[in-house]
Amino acid sequence: NSATDVIKQGGRRRGANMGILRVDHPDIMEFISCKEDTSELTNFNISVAVTDEFMERVKSNGDYELINPRTGEVAGKLNAAEVFNKIVGNAWKTGEPGMIFIDEINRHNPTPHVGEIESTNPCGEQPLLPYESCNLGSINLSRFVENGDVNWDKLGHVVRTAVRFLDDVIDMNKYPIPEIEEMTKANRKIGLGVMGFADMLIKLSIPYNSEKALEMAERVMSFIQEEAKKASIELGLERGSFPNFKGSVYDGQYEAMRNATVTTIAPTGTISIIAGCSSGIEPLFAISFIRNVLDKDDKLHETNPYFEEIAREMGFYSEELMNKIAENNGSVQGLEEVPEEVQRIFVTALDISPEWHVRMQAAFQKYVDNATSKTINLPEHATVEDVKNAYLLAYELKCKGITVYRYGSRPEQVITTGEEKERDAIAPRPRPAVVRGVTRKIATGCGNLYVTMNEDEHGLFEVFARLGKAGGCADAQLEAVGRLVSLCLRSGVKPMEIVKQLKAIRCPNPLLARGGPVLSCPDAIAKALEDHIKGKEVLQPARLDLFEGKEGKKDEEKVKYTEKAPVGVCPDCGSPLVYEEGCRICKQCGYSTCG
User: What is the pTM of this model?
Assistant: First the structure.
């Protein structure tokens, strides 16, 4: 996560990671909760890989076994329904974790002899074996609607051309490491998908949440799948099948196959903006909306061009109406100014029930080799039960995964509608007349540090720190740290966030303690806070007699402060320092400081 923060893809595009853990892993409960704090793992999506066995135990309210992945031994049991409800509850709060139906994915693994699929790419549309890579392309479906119908010949030609193009990319691409090149070329997976599906439906006057839309989804995707497979077979005969063809699901069924997979439905968040169409297979998010961009000071106000065109043609367009739509969560539903037949066609993600979202994802998944990336959008007032039903329906309809997002459940989202609600100003909690607390004594390189931590009825409230006989500047610095820590605690900052900021700050006088090195006074305050939160005992200074100098052996009965005894730890490598000829010296890396 930190590495991604640093890189940020050259400052042009943010990086993304995917964390997936099997539901039978012993650490699954901690994993489910790892993004409850939305400031953590900001460059990660997380999903739980659930099995068929787990889902059946959810239905029967039974227990299931946790398996140690290293030994394969049973490490415990959990109630499936309780774990499922934890996943659902967290997804309702923050949109994560999502679910990956890992058995369904492996049922469609084209190369089971090569290995079992354990994970997907960050958006979930591409299940991959270790070292495989994404090679995706998307067709803008809105460009194939002519005179109220789909130009199937034109679409077929583009599909065949796109398959050849993506196959060429595999050979022309430069790979970062040999393992990725080897695996990518061994299976030659490509993922041709679509975008602009919602725009296509609008042009065909089909509501997104209708049986007719589901039929069109299946018709379009089955056509693309069939044409893509034909193109891959032709390429296989022309250039040779992918190297792992022997033993694959195609072996014996087809004479040749150039690519292990040919279709994927990606989210197309960026390329759909470039193409000027709706993203992936998603419905319109809003008819009029505000788009947040990388520069947080800029906001783009946009209106759907198809709606604007129809509104102008029918004579009901006005700037006032566009603003009114934005204030109506981007929806035209229930607005008197918009004719009913237009309202019927222009439905948004939040106008559509979760069931229709899941059914649309399942309709596409029927004819996709890899997986389908789609967000199941829910309104802000949606319940935990709504999320639960969506997850269960996705499993029943044989989706390969599911991600939900309840509008407003995250502080920052890419697209918003209407005006932002005014946030309440944060004010520090007032200090009661009486508080309870403890004082911890911690040995540091500068002397004994006394850290007092007081609590009110809400938890940690304030911190005071004083160094034994310091006085002067040292005490002033500690008072400043204590005041700022106290202000943070009274303003709702989590204590462990404060610990993270103070921990590992170094000074020239570190000290080796029994629980680990105390690198500075702020580091000692962090340790005192952490130990107080976790209920641990106070750190004690390390016994100096555990170290042996050149002058003699250690004395088991008493501490010998000899000239060669350790005097803290090295700030560079963490090894014990010894005092020689007026200097503190590290025998491991050569660090020294004198005086």
Answer: 0.70
